[in-house]
Structure formats: C-alpha cells, structure tokens
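Fold this sequence, please.
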Amino acid sequence: MRMAPARLTFDQAPLRVYWELTRACDLACRHCRAEAVRARHPGELTGAEGLRLLERLAAFGDPKPHVVLTGGDPLKRADLWELIAAARALGLGVSVAPSATELLRPEEIGRFQKTRVEAISLSLDGSTAARHDTFRGIRGTFARTLHAARVARAVGLPFQVNTLVAEQTLADLAALYLLASELGAARWSLFFLVPMGRGTVLGQISPRDAEQVMRWLAELGGRDGAPTVTTTEAPHFRRVLLERRRSAGGHGAGIRDGNGIMFVSHTGEVQPSGFLPLSAGNVRTDDVVTIYRESPLFRNLRCPDRFAGRCGRCEFRALCGGSRARAYAASGDPLGEDPMCAYQPRTRRPSGRSEA
C-alpha cells in the first residue's frame, strides 16, 4: 500500500476559507444548510467589514488561502464585484458559488471570467428537470443550470458540479456523472448529506451504501476528459483510494472541518465548516488568524488522536479523520465517531480521547 503524504495537519493556515456572504437566495432547496430566505439579513457583514476580513485572510501569509464566496446566493450582494476585486488584489484565489436564478445571466458568468475568478460551482441534484427542480423548489432551475454550465465552458471559466448524496439521489448518481461529464465540468463534487438545516427532512444513505458509492467513485477517477471526482463531508474516500492502491494526496489528504478548512458566516461567526455550526469567535471582535491557529475548537479538530470511537482507533485517522460535522450532528460531539463510515479499524490502540 502506498504511504500517505507527510503533510496532514494544517495548523498555521487553512487551504480554503468559505465565506457566506449572505443567506439571501431566491431558491428553496430541500437540503439547504443555511435555510436561506429571499431577504438579506440586517446583521450581515458590511462591505467595509468584508474588506477588513479579506485583508486578515491575506495575513495568513504565503501560500494564502483560497476564498470561496458562497451563500445563500452571492449575487444577492451588490458589492460582490468589489469584494472579488479586493481579494484578487490581495493575492487571494477566489471561487464563487452562485445560485442558478435569474441573477446568473451570461453577463455575470463572463464577468466572473474577466475578474479572474478561478472557478464557479453549479449544483445538480437530479439528472432531469423533474428530479432537480423538485430539490431546488423552483421550476426551470435545471434548465438554467445547464445553460450556465454551457456559457461558462464557452467563455473558458472552469466550473464544478456539486451533487447531493442522499437516499433521494442515490439511484441517479450514475446519470448525474454522465451529465457532468457531458457539460465539461472540471470537477464533480459529491456532498454526502449531513442532517442540518432543511436537510434534516432527507435521508442519509447507509454506511454500506456509502462504501459502495466511494468504491464506484474510485473507479471513475482518472478517465480521460472526465471531471475530477471529489467528496465533501466524506473523507473516507481517501482511505478507499489508498486501499485501491491509488494516491489520496490529490484528494485533500488530511483536510477536514477545522483542519485546512474554515467557514465565516454571514454575520461573521468563525466555524470549522458550514456544516459544523460551532463558533470559535467572530471576525467583528476577534482576529480570524488567531482564531484558526489558537482556538481550542480548531486545535482539537486538528488532533485526530483525540477523536472518539472507531475514528480515534483507525489507522487512517490522520489521512481521513471522518466527517466532524456528521459526528456532531449524530452525537453532539465534534470529536465523536462518524456514523456513516463502514470501516472497522485494524488497530487495537485505544482512542486518544481516553488516553488524554
């Protein structure tokens, strides 16, 4: 078996920072983490506060983190373009996660490309209009998403297709992969449901099904002309890649909530991810660099030897570590065991939690 990469802990700076610009969105997605609404929240970070946040993110030093502007729908903020320009001037890489609404016109897609946005993400949770629009709560969203993808490809703007993995989408994943490939997506990112927000009404797949999906995904990787396959809240995929004698280094080895990942909410709360709703501070009153490097929450999440249950005993705990968000949703403990993993550790070393 190929050895895991040496760097698995990201204690000085995150690789990616997700900034939730707003929770305002004109869609009504069944699995929305943010439980988005149409109107902007009065407590959102102001433009001036946002510019100060970007300056502090650049202060992490080189290599600077990549900033993903998300929501809600970032296009609901009129100052989006000013924030993109400021981030690029500071040397920060930028991606944007717009919603497929009437605000996402060809003009906006072209402007993303001209302002040096590195990529956008588009969501497809069904391979047909009937399936996808049912998830999004608005008719016509499927057609608008396909049009946006084709425009992005035409103007040379890389795009990622995001797909939910839940009981309601499991049988459609193969067709969705073919659709993402046909559209020319650079990446196909599968988000394995964490029951939070509106997503609590949907069904998580079983550990056995999750294992089968990841083994199938491992077989898809590396095909000529096909999108790169990645996962969100399913770091077990790295273990599957290693077991199949493929390198997991290109799939974000070690990265998980709080370790290489940081989330800033629309009101400035700093969390390990958007799916792990625990705050370690607020950018209005605390330094975001200090929060990431020194807060007990982030430091504990970067120490897999402190994880409980199978995650703490697992020989892949540094490479994978399980979904901290799903552990928290299941038990209220962000250091707990990820219940979606089917793997039984081979080591008998007791969890670091009990040793501490």
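Residues 1-6, 350-356 have pLDDT under 50 and may be disordered. The first strand starts at residue 16 and ends at 20.
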